[in-house]
Design goal:
By secondary structure, the protein is an alpha/beta fold. The chain folds into four domains: 113 residues, NAD(P)-binding Rossmann-like Domain (Rossmann fold, 3-Layer(aba) Sandwich), CATH 3.40.50.720; 178 residues, NAD(P)-binding Rossmann-like Domain (Rossmann fold); 126 residues, D-3-phosphoglycerate dehydrogenase, domain 3 (60s Ribosomal Protein L30, Chain: A, 2-Layer Sandwich), CATH 3.30.1330.90; 79 residues, Alpha-Beta Plaits. 34% of the residues lie in helices and 23% in strands. The chain contains 18 helices and 22 strands. A seven-stranded parallel beta sheet has the order 8-7-6-9-10-11-12, sandwiched between helices. Strands 14-13-15-16-17-18 form a six-stranded mixed beta sheet, with helices on one face. A five-stranded parallel beta sheet has the order 2-1-3-4-5. Helix 5 packs across helix 7. The longest helix is centred in the middle third of the chain and has 24 residues. It binds nicotinamide-adenine-dinucleotide. The site of nicotinamide-adenine-dinucleotide has 34 residues, from helix 5 and helix 7. The site of nicotinamide-adenine-dinucleotide (NAD) has 34 residues, from helix 5 and helix 7.
Length: 531
């Protein structure tokens, strides 16, 4: 392609246009363009760079006859109609993690502000006071920093905290040991992090499992006098419980950038003398804004020049013929990955994917991507999609081993997905019987034949009479309709696995009751209906 044309319709750094021009692109920098002008001229452009202002909706995309790529400088793509873009074959890219350093630095500022009570001392001086005694602080050196979540931001915080001489411990069930070791961070069960941390900082996504993670019960298990930082998501913290913890002195102080509701109406919390509050600005810096502008421009250059796809949010990079061949297996792959992520109890350092039967002759890369997408999404990694699944694995030092085998397994096609670490493996196998009929055919080598519906109850139990009846009765008594009940076992009275497909989701309290049954060794509710 000669001289591709790029329109920048939002306020990106002016240097971004220069970068594009230096790369031989015709860049039109028009941050103040009106909607009607945009609709009129978009047909001339190969690429469109935006932030959050420009609405890249269906009417705009309908006029975009030559458009090949939309680049969002930043993470959120709420202003872009992804379905329409995908249907039109327009690639959409973003720049997730462009503000990780900013968020990590803000976290450090919060840690220091908590240790030295800088906002409180400043406000006291502004009232004419000079109170050295009241503002005696503590050092970070030698203190234990507990991190919940050791992803992009948590990792950057750990490096900075180590430089301050802090001992860093973390809870993150989805990060390999080696990744943490390289950061000089000790991975521990969440209980121990609560019990040992002098400072606790949250860096995990908001999900069903993490909502209200900091609550009365978890606060009770924390070290007295703990200092809490939340620069992740507001709803991770139960704010009334935090206020109670602060009131009892169990929590010495808290620094919050994010709130259950934003802007926060909770003046009791924000105005508390031991709370430091900022208005969701951890990721907002000039550098982060600049960086995402240059990053997205470079991604667009690499895509239009060399076909390199990075941080795409809507696209599968294979030919349409290859795509048609693998499309029926994508859902099977995603469900197997998601199921395994939800029932696995091991820390993953390697994912083995093996294809059998008809699949051996296909370009199965997209199926592997959907397996990883399902797996990582179930681990709470929000930003994963089909395109970035492999790079997310690499970032986390998780090795992906794809193989195919011509061994006859009794099915026309079969996918085996295995999670491994140094000493443990867990795996599931599934097959597509005919259009849309997805079957789970084994778990950890125990043969089964279960549909892969939207809601499953997964049970590991000691094979003994009565277990099925008890579980069935409990589900029935709670109005949960059973669509199918499948059992498999290693040997009589040995380890058994039960998979129950239900018509609706199983409530948490019912799951706890099932987990408490003496014969049940492990039970998990699995949702396979999310995209
Ligand atoms: P990330 O996906 O790189 O890392 C999240 C980590 O949390 C992953 O390593 C994952 O394995 C781990 N995790 C998932 N579920 C967990 C659980 N139940 N317990 C413990 N660990 C779990 O994300 P990131 O970019 O580091 O972002 C971290 C958080 O910061 C997110 O909530 C994000 O929305 C938030 N954020 C806030 C701002 C701000 O301005 N305040 C800016 C950027 C990001």
């Amino acid at each position: 392609m000669t001289n591709p044309k790029v329109l920048i319709s939002d306020n990106l750094s002016a240097g971004v246009a220069d970068l594009l021009r230096d790369a031989g692109f015709a860049a039109d920098f028009r941050p103040d363009i009106s909607r009607s002008e945009l609709l009129n001229c978009i047909g001339n452009f190969d690429a469109l760079l935006v932030r959050s202002k420009t609405q890249v909706d269906a009417p705009l995309l309908a006029c975009a006859r030559s458009l090949k790529v939309v680049g969002r400088a930043g993470a959120g793509v709420d202003n872009i109609d992804l379905d329409t873009a995908t249907r039109k074959g327009i690639l959409v890219m973003n720049t997730p993690g462009g503000n990780s350093i900013s968020a990590a630095e803000h976290t450090m500022a919060m840690l220091l502000a908590l240790a030295r009570r800088i906002p409180q001392a400043d406000s006291s001086m502004k009232q004419g006071e000079w109170d050295k005694k009241r503002f005696e602080g503590i050092e970070l050196l030698g203190k234990v920093l507990g991190l919940l979540g050791l992803g992009k931001i948590g990792s950057e915080v750990s490096k900075r905290a180590r430089a301050f001489g802090m001992k860093v411990i973390a809870y993150d069930p989805y990060i390999p040991e080696k990744y943490a070791r390289d950061l000089e961070v000790q991975l521990l069960p969440v209980e121990e992090v609560f019990a040992r941390a002098d400072f606790l900082s949250l860096h995990l996504p908001l999900a069903e499992a993490t909502q209200g993670l900091i609550n009365d019960e978890t606060i009770a298990r924390m070290k007295p006098g703990i200092r809490l930082v939340n620069c992740a998501r507001g709803a991770l913290v139960d704010e009334p419980a935090l206020l109670r913890g602060l009131g009892q002195g169990k929590i010495a102080a808290a620094a919050l950038d994010v709130f259950q509701q934003e802007p926060s109406p909770n003046q009791e919390l924000v105005g508390h003398p031991n709370v430091i509050a900022t208005p969701h600005i951890a990721g907002s810096t000039q550098e982060a804004q600049e960086k995402v502008g240059f990053e997205i421009a470079q991604q667009v250059i690499d895509y239009l020049r060399a076909g390199v796809v990075r941080n795409a949010v809507n696209f599968i990079s294979i030919s349409s013929r290859e795509f048609e061949q693998v499309a029926p297996y994508l859902e099977l792959g995603e469900k197997l990955g998601s199921l395994l992520g939800q029932i696995s109890r091991i820390r993953v350092s390697e994912v083995g994917i093996r294809y059998y039967g008809d699949l051996t002759s296909l370009n199965y890369k997209p199926i592997s991507s959907s397996i990883l997408k399902g797996l990582f999404q179930s681990m709470g990694i929000e930003s994963v999609n089909m395109i970035n699944a492999f790079s997310q694995a690499k970032e986390r030092q998780i090795l992906i081993v794809e193989t195919s085998s011509s061994r006859e397994r009794g099915f026309k096609n079969l996918i085996s997905v295995q999670l491994r670490n140094e000493s443990q493996t867990e795996w599931v196998e599934g097959a597509l019987l005919h259009r849309g009929n997805l079957r789970l055919i084994s778990v950890d080598g125990i043969g089964l034949d279960s549909p892969l519906g939207s809601f499953l109850l997964f049970i590991r139990n000691q094979d003994q009479p009565g277990v099925i009846g008890q579980v069935g009765t409990m589900l029935g008594n709670n109005g949960i309709n059973i669509a199918s009940f499948t059992l498999g076992r290693h040997e009589e009275r040995g380890e058994a696995i039960g998979v129950v497909n239900t018509d609706s989701a199983i409530p948490a309290d019912l799951l706890r009751k099932i987990q408490a049954l003496p014969a049940v060794q492990f039970a998990a509710r699995v949702r396979l209906d999310r995209k």
